[in-house]
Amino acid sequence: MTPRESDTIISAAAGTNEGNQELRSRSELTAKEVMREVGAVLRMSEADAALLAEVEADPGEDQTMIINMGPQHPSTHGVLRLMLELKGETVLRCKPIIGYLHTGMEKTGESLTFMQGGTNVTRMDYLSPLNSELVFSMATEKLLGIDGDIPERAVWIRMLLSELNRMSSHLLFMATNGMDIGAVSMMLYGWREREIVLRFFQKVTGLRMNHNFIRPGGVAADLPADWRDDVMSILDMLPDRLGEYDVLMTNQPIWRERLQGVGVITQAEAIALGATGPILRSTGLAWDLRRDMPYLHYDELEFDVIVGRYGDAFDRYAIRLNEIRESMRIVRQILDRVPRGDYRIQDKKVTPPPRARIDESMEALIHHFKIFTEGFKVPEGEVYVAIESPRGEVGCYIASDGSPTPYRMHVRAPSFVNVQALPHMMRGGLVADAVAVISSVDPVLGEVDR
Amino acid sequence: MSTEESATPATLFGCLLGDSRGQAVLFVPKQSYMSTMKNLVDNGYEMCVDLTAVDFLTHASRTLPDSIAPERFEIVVNLLSLSKRERLRVRVQVSESDPLIESLFDLYPGTEAMEREVFDMFGISFSGHPDLTRILMPEDWQGHPLRKDYAQGRIPVQFKGAAS
């Protein structure tokens, strides 16, 4: 495909012109293309398709207007750019334009060793870095064939951190969702609670975000001695705060008015589009990889999968709020079950020698040096491993050629797929609700663009 | 890769069914790609969670079942069956001389963006795709970054006082 010539001229003059990637005006499209863009492809029933035709009612070129929302817009959660076709206040079509944060992380991943890969993937979904690290580590371990040999303590630490990360991510959603819809004080409360979780992460991993703590073979370090007290203080603090959120938002008529019935997506649409996580669950389908295709030791824990019913923005909000509660329930069970023992596998191939050994053993020093400069070789093969991140299914596909670096490393980012559901949620809605819909999808642009 | 060859290889819809680290992999010839995918949709694989590609330019000697002729590109489709709680990976060989394959858009509308990403990053075209444009790179970008013959950009490091 070559860019249209008119666009090339415009892009020389203006800054953000993406040529053919942009939403095209109606006069340039055939009727079939318009029908596709408004969602006629989603194997709809004839009745639905007829309704769709009514919304269209041939608005005519001069009746509609295409506007840009983003890439610089406080409610697009980064650099998401939406082109909206409006008729009055009604959104007729919408197209997300992404790539403004593309930094070639999958290409970078091909030159980093499996040892270093964690630093790369952790920056993709920067709101749930530990889940990205976890899926990368699990894929590497599967290639190495050591996925069954990870020490119990490491597995439970991974689950603990993964669930705390789910809580911190959802708490940030509460904050941004509140701000987007106008409950500005909620923004402060959400960030405040998240900060307490991040402080625990800082104590454990040394960093608030981008931890590179979960690594192939286990975790980077043991938990601090008093970790139980810290986690307990989080668990003691949160229920009251979540109760305040209920008072401030859930039961409040204005909040419900803004969210209920907004951005509706049906179950068939969500499945067809590949949407996962709270979006899929909001349509009433109880699909959670932690329960349905368990990994780590989730099958030993008791928790509920929160589902919605109407597939609207309110359901997605309520699901996330209650998933914080479920995560707390999981963390309580984990507290009692973290065993003593190694926090990383005692396999000389993937685990560097302990620091103390380096001072007394030349071999340990060489081993340490080699593993950090060359990395460890991973047998040839390819795997796809997926786990449930706060945003949905995050998957990691690694093809290895037997060298210490992945031959190809691909991350299936839930936000990338979920953002594609936006046009279907927005169609026929009001432009004022666009912000609420974007917010309810909770995209992380670092992960969308990778 | 690491496919366990038995006396009678397992097949699914006439395609070779392999195994990679315990995960089911279906090797589909390019000619029967669409018909096989249709069969898979009808047999409970409701969701296409991921579609990506691999460029095997510098690793042509990879392990494949005997009956599969390796090509430069491979399309990798990860399917999920919500009802059966199963995953299936489909691998299709795509040649360098004819980097074109049918689009899954009609079966799985969600693959639209994923196929655009593959087109953008690997230069593999999808026939029947409604909107085959670049998605991550700028529209006027030259080349396809995830191909193995596309050099990785780097910033030269300048050392203070070093010669040249």
Word description of this protein:
Chain A is mostly helical and 450 residues long. Chain A has a single domain, classed as Orthogonal Bundle (Cytochrome-c3 Hydrogenase, chain B). Chain A is 49% helix and 10% strand. Chain A has 20 helices and eight strands. Chain A has helices at 5-13, 31-37, 46-56, 105-109, 117-121, 129-144, 152-181, 184-205, 227-250, 253-259, 267-273, 278-282, 289-292, 313-335, 355-360, 362-373, 414-419, 422-426, 431-441, 445-449, and strands spanning 65-69, 81-87, 90-97, 214-215, 218-219, 381-389, 392-400, 408-412. In chain A, the strands form three sheets. A three-stranded antiparallel beta sheet of chain A has the order 1-2-3. In chain A, strands 6-7-8 form a three-stranded antiparallel beta sheet. In chain A, strands 4-5 form a two-stranded antiparallel ribbon. The model of chain A is unreliable at 1-14 (pLDDT under 50). Chain B is of the alpha/beta class and 164 residues long. Chain B has a single domain (11-127), classed as NADH:ubiquinone oxidoreductase Nqo5 subunit (Beta Polymerase, domain 2). In chain B, 13% of the residues lie in helices and 29% in strands. Chain B has helices spanning 33-42, 111-122; strands spanning 11-12, 15-20, 23-28, 47-55, 73-81, 86-94, 100-102, 125-127. Residues 1-6 of chain B have low confidence and may be disordered. The interface between A and B is large, with 58 and 51 residues.
Along the chain, the helix and strand elements of chain A come as HHHEEEHHHHHEEHHHHHHHHEEEHHHH
Sheet with the most strands of chain A?
3 strands, antiparallel
Find the CATH topology of chain B. Answer: Beta Polymerase, domain 2
Overall 3D form of chain A:
globular
Total DSSP E strands of chain B: 8
Most strands sheet of chain B: 6 strands, mixed
Please name the CATH architecture of chain B: 2-Layer Sandwich
Low-confidence segments of chain A, ≥5 residues, pLDDT <50? 1-14
Q: How many distinct folded domains of chain B? A: 1
